[in-house]
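User: Here's a structure from my thesis project, written as structure tokens. My advisor, Dr. K., wants to see whether a designed sequence matches the one we expressed. Can you design one independently, without my sequence as a hint?
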């Protein structure tokens, strides 16, 4: 902003006035000083309101800030300087106009004062009757009136200019405050830039630290990978060695089996000769002249090993239960068959006379499994009422009721000594019962619902098949887990059965495959399945079982069909369908299959309530 030039303090500094030639110039007192214009230092426009010049960056700050940050600050200062210059230019024109008006006001006041003095002098010195003087006087009065009007206009203009100056002063104050805010923002930004530089420095330090740690971890991972590769190579070598050993063991077992087969053939020949020599004294009783127990095999073992035949057809079909027939069981002589079903009844059949013997009751809901004791003195059945009931096979009276499970019992079996019993339930437990007291000897938590349970030939172990597709072996003495197979099936396991020699176990599953397990090595050694894909396991406790000599495995499928596999080769030997019209019409699913202890017949049942006998 520019201050206006100093105003004249006396009339002598004003330009000369043009007067008529005959007028007298009198010595006059100097006129009073005109009213001064609004000074720049007045309260309406304080000097402190002017914005301070921008603070330049210090050398230390310029050294620490980056090139980009210096460019940003300089750009902000340049914009503020440009705005300051633009606002000054606006005020400069107003101040120049105000100075001109004040100068003209001072000049007119001075000339007015001189004219008034001259008029007074002329009036005092000239006669009133002089017409010339009177005319001049009127002329001067007219001019004076015009000057007074012009002066009043100037006063008004001065007032308007004063208001404009006040408005401009307020505007300058606002701009000054805004400038101070912007400078504060600049200072905050500079502080943020400084703190950001510190954060960047800390981040760089952390980055360097983490990079070092990452490098160390990469080296450790590299060493661990090398160790893992070494361990993997060792495992592969051990696996190769193990496969070689297993192959050698299997070869040895096969050699032993061949030797046993040769011995059996020799025995068969010797026995055949003995039969021919003793034919006259047999009295029409087959093998009656033989002792009850020979050195190698007993009479029933002879039948199991030499009279087993794969059936060719259904020899008898009858409706045993209303609703589903859940299970069948032979007594140890193969002369009596027991069946159970969803009608909560147990029915006994005499196979010699092909007649119904008796019906056992006691359950209130569907029965799912049935079993004879090894000494054929008891019958046990279990089902959806979470109870297992034991009857006398002689008197058909109820001997005991085993309670304690919290859900349905899917499987039951006797121990080999007929003094204990095993039950497997959907409550994921197996219970070992003392039949003398009716109490629980052991409760075993299996971790999954039990679909099937059976006891091994020697009586030392029992197996369970589970809803989670696992198969487990347990000690029959203390209930400890002996072995488990979690990955041999992809869907729930429906049964596990043992061969009569106790060497093998066969499992069945809803994935439509059967697995052969070598109990001596706990290895799954064969998979039985139908190459044509026709075998379908459609029941949660549909079982597979061995033939009495252990050479074949049989399992039931849809449409009440039976599938037979050769244990040694693993090939499907035969697929049987019933010719009975009722069975064809029902197209039911097999729920249970059992091979007769004599080896000559196979019994099965389906979910339509039928029991089927298969033979030659």
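Assistant: Designed independently from the structure alone:
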């Amino acid at each position: 902003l520019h201050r206006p030039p100093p105003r004249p303090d006396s009339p002598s500094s004003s330009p000369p006035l043009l007067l008529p030639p005959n007028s007298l110039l009198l010595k006059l007192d100097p006129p009073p000083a005109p009213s001064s214009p609004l000074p720049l230092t007045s309260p309406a426009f304080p000097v402190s309101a002017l914005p301070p010049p921008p603070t330049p960056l210090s050398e230390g700050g310029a050294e620490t800030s980056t090139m980009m940050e210096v460019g940003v600050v300089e750009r902000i200062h340049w914009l503020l300087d440009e705005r300051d210059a633009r606002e000054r230019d606006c005020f400069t024109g107003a101040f120049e106009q105000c100075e001109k008006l004040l100068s003209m006001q001072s000049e007119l006041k001075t000339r007015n004062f001189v004219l008034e003095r001259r008029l007074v002098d002329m009036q005092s010195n000239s006669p009133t009757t002089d017409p010339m003087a009177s005319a001049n006087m009127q002329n001067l009065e007219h001019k004076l009136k015009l000057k007074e009007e012009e002066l009043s206009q100037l006063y008004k203009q001065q007032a308007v200019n004063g208001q404009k100056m006040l408005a401009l002063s307020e505007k300058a104050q606002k701009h000054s405050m805004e400038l101070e805010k912007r400078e504060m923002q600049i200072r905050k930004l500079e502080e943020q830039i400084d703190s950001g530089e510190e954060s960047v420095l800390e981040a760089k330090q952390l980055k360097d630290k983490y990079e070092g740690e990452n490098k160390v971890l990469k080296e450790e991972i590299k060493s661990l990978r090398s160790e893992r590769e070494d361990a993997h190579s060792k495992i592969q070598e051990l696996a190769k060695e193990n496969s070689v050993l297993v192959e050698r063991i299997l070869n040895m077992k096969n050699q032993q089996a061949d030797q046993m087969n040769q011995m059996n053939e020799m025995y068969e020949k010797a026995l055949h000769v003995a039969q021919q020599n003793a034919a006259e004294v047999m009295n029409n009783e087959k093998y009656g002249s033989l002792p009850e127990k020979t050195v190698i095999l007993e009479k029933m073992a002879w039948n199991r090993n030499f009279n087993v035949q794969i059936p060719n057809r259904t020899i008898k079909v009858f409706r045993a239960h209303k609703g589903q027939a859940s299970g069948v069981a032979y007594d140890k002589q193969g002369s009596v068959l027991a069946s159970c079903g969803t009608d909560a009844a147990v029915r006994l059949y005499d196979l010699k006379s092909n007649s119904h013997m008796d019906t056992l009751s006691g359950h209130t809901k569907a029965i799912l499994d049935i079993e004879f004791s090894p000494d054929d003195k008891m019958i046990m059945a279990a089902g959806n009422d979470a109870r297992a009931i034991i009857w006398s096979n002689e008197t058909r009276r109820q001997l005991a009721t085993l309670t304690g499970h919290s859900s349905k019992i899917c499987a039951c079996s006797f121990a080999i000594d007929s003094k204990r019993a095993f039950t497997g339930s959907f409550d994921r437990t197996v219970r070992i019962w003392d039949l003398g007291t009716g109490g629980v000897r052991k409760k075993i938590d299996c971790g999954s619902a039990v679909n099937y349970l059976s006891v091994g030939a020697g009586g030392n172990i029992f197996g369970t098949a589970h809803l989670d597709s696992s198969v487990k072996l347990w000690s029959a003495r203390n209930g400890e887990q002996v072995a488990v197979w979690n990955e041999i099936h992809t869907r729930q396991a429906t049964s596990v059965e043992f061969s009569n020699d106790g060497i093998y176990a066969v499992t069945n599953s809803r994935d439509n495959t059967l697995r052969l397990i070598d109990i001596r090595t706990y290895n799954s050694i064969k998979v039985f399945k139908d190459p044509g894909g026709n075998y379908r396991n459609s029941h949660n406790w549909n079982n597979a079982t061995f033939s009495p000599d252990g050479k074949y495995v049989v399992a039931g499928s849809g449409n009440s069909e039976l599938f037979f596999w050769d244990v040694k080769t693993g090939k499907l030997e035969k697929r049987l369908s019933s010719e009975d019209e009722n069975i064809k019409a029902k197209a039911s699913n097999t729920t249970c299959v059992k091979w007769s202890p004599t080896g000559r017949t196979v019994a099965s049942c389906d979910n339509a309530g039928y029991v089927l006998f298969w033979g030659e």
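When you compare it with your expressed construct, this may help: The two ends are 130 Å apart (CA to CA).
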